[in-house]
Amino acid sequence: MTSPSWQLHRGDALTVLHTLATGSADAVITDPPYCSGGLTTAQRTGQSTRGKYVSSTAQHQLADFDGDTRDQRGYFAWMSLVLGQCYRISRTSAPLLLFTDWRQLPVNSDALQAAGWTWRGIVPWHKPIARPSKGGFKRACEYVLWATKGPVDAARNPVYLPGLYSASQPRGSKRFHITQKPDELMRELVKVCVPDGTVLDPFAGSGSTGVAALTAGRSFVGVELSERYAETARERLALAA
Fold it and tell me: In the chain, what is the straight-line distance between the N-terminal and C-terminal CA atoms, in Å?
């Protein structure tokens, strides 16, 4: 058994992924820019990411990030290319876990299948603290699309994982990114990767996937476009290693 290792590449996901070795990842777990938060082009492109995804009562001043203004056709084409590279880099039977909100769930399910992945299901993530919706239902869930590169190989990783998770986004000093996912959620999701395997995240953000992977004894390869968030991720990964 070898100690888990990590690498973080600073750059555009699609550009960097082309440089990674074929068959070098055992799982892909990622939270791409949703390009969501608006039902019209003006709403989608006229707001900052903070305006789209952060409550007005939030007590932090975390940085915005780029790449969140694509329309549906552009997003589908781009995600198909990104997930196609992830497919190439992954070993046979590797799982893919892809975060999405309700607006982008259809296009993400199309993109992963266009890239070659076999779609296996949807895992809801319940957020106890969520924005209310007057006259309707609180948007209290985001979703994780589960897919595999070919067949599920349960013999290599015989886990029985829940089909639903509930966890709140980190707050205060533990919040490093606008769209950061809960550490306890990520620690559960990385269990889908085979023991001693390598987790790939082409949208690493502040490094939450990598921290969870290293904590669970998996290695990690990440890509992050923002230099500011890449530096945060490097600091967190170094502490977790």
Answer: 15
What pTM was estimated for this model as a whole? Answer: 0.85
Look up residue 174 and give its two tokens. Answer: 């533990």
Q: What is the DSSP letter of 170?
A: P
User: Any idea which residue has 């608006």 for tokens?
Assistant: 38
Place of tokens 């992945």: 117
Query: How far is it, in rounded angstroms, from Cα 33 to Cα 220?
Result: 20
- Three-state SS letters, 47-72: CCHHHHHCCCCCCCCCCCCCCCCCCH
Q: What is the DSSP letter of 46?
A: H
Give, for 221, the enclosing helix (H) or strand (E).
strand 219-224
Structure tokens at 71: 């329309």
Q: Checking phi first, is residue 207 left (phi over 0); if not, alpha (psi -120 to 50) or beta? A: left
The phi-psi region of residue 116 (left if phi > 0; otherwise alpha if psi is between -120 and 50; otherwise beta) is left
Helix axes 105-114, 72-89, angle to 10 degrees: 40
Distance (Å, rounded) from C-alpha 114 to C-alpha 108?
A: 10
| C-alpha to C-alpha distance for 117 and 67, rounded to whole angstroms | 23
Separation of alpha carbons 36 and 69, rounded Å: 8
Task: Give residue-wise pLDDT tens across range 21-80.
Answer: 999 999 999 999 987 655 556 655 665 554 555 544 455 556 554 556 778 888 999 999
